[in-house]
């Protein structure tokens, strides 16, 4: 009952006219960005971090929530009509969604994606409403040792999942940890790695790193890969109305996709890629006509799209309750919290309940906006695909540069932005994922602080981290981190031995 009371208070915040406007703007911007190939929600939120610095935090996060949900849906439009996923969670949708478009059923594919996103988003947000407070109650048992162990879980899982190579993922994490060391040591007051620049005494700005890696680096990378070829866009034909057979073949995949997407999204190694692929496999297993998969099966669009949007709500659960990012977008959202001097976790629910519950309530509202706006405006989103790519990338670079400069009116910040952006471009060229770098930058100083506190309390006894009798939570979390590191390595070795 207390949770429902908080949620009702959240709706009072979310339904305020100004916040409704920010939710609508977030949904529109998120969908538009999700439609554009190669431009995902992480880049969008990173790009808007400098612009929203003057916004009130609740309004900013309501808009970010709309962007997150909108981009998850928007990626399906490009996947279906262009066979180019706008973000990683829409890769699976492209397989059968584009096949439906080639058969002239692109409208029905977009319809089942939109309705499935609404159904899954609503159910998953309802689950988020009750799961996040439960996580908060669980985290109240955490001390410095437990928080350090939790951050080790975050380091290992994000590094292992977000990237094709474990060594390259850890290289990105180490870069982030090194950037996090720059500045003045909080306990000793000694300057570290500032190289004589007084501008670095307060550390490297999280916003500068986020915009540099995700906006500048991504735009340079996409521009370098741009091919001067005409891409074939399949026009939307006919009505969006789904037939009775389409409805009967879609509603079960919507529910199954939701059940798959939310819990996996909430796991430290979740994200949106795993549940969408898993949903595709499950739907093929349950399908009456599995031979249609790969050739335009509507279940193969309905299930993965539902899993995609449900995982978005799942990602927010550990982020809000524990401060644990499980995807690239969650890492940027964590940077946004840091920008406002906020730390997600149990204290956030106590210190800023209007922000947390206003954000959760706005997800219900934004999800409804998605359904009401996206079907009528599908033709408008398709026209965005006609924007010349050089104009798009030039606009992103200009917007990122101006946004960072307006924070402090500092030329040093601009130089740092472009150094980091070019570094991000180089990381992408060699396949180094950038999300672990952001996680290392944000959580690294916090992990160092909790490590020092735990050792000070235990008077230097390192068993405080692994003794299952005195600190069972810390030892259990470290065991999870070790398992997340070792098990994939053993599986790869076994696969190589079998091959």
Q: Which sequence of SSEs, written as H and E, runs from N to C?
A: HHHHHHHHEEHHHHHHHHHHHH
**Chain-averaged pLDDT:** 81
Rg on CA atoms, Å? 22 Å
Largest sheet: 2 strands, antiparallel
Oligomerization state of this entry? single chain
Task: Give me the side-by-side strand order of the main sheet.
Answer: 1-2
Q: How many beta-strand segments?
A: 2
- Number of alpha- plus pi-helical segments: 20
Determine the N-to-C terminus distance: 55 Å
Number of domains: 1
> What amount of the residues lies in strands?
under 5%
General shape: globular
List low-confidence stretches. none
Percent range of helical residues: over 70%
Structural class: mainly alpha
Description:
By secondary structure, this protein is mostly helical. It has one domain (2-498). Helix content is 73%, strand content 1%. It has 20 helices and two strands. It has a two-stranded antiparallel ribbon. A hairpin with a 6-residue loop joins strand 1 (183-184) and strand 2. The radius of gyration is 22 Å and the shape is globular. Residues 20-438 form the DUF112 domain.
Topology:
Blueprint: H1 2-14, H2 17-35, H3 41-48, H4 57-82, H5 91-102, H6 106-139, H7 144-161, H8 166-181, E1 183-184, E2 191-192, H9 206-225, H10 244-266, H11 273-286, H12 299-322, H13 328-339, H14 346-351, H15 353-374, H16 378-384, H17 389-408, H18 411-429, H19 435-457, H20 472-498
Antiparallel strand pairs: 1-2
Helix pairs in contact: 1-15, 2-4, 2-15, 3-4, 3-9, 3-13, 4-5, 4-6, 4-12, 4-13, 4-15, 5-6, 5-12, 6-10, 6-12, 6-15, 7-8, 7-19, 7-20, 8-19, 9-17, 9-18, 10-11, 10-12, 11-12, 13-19, 17-18
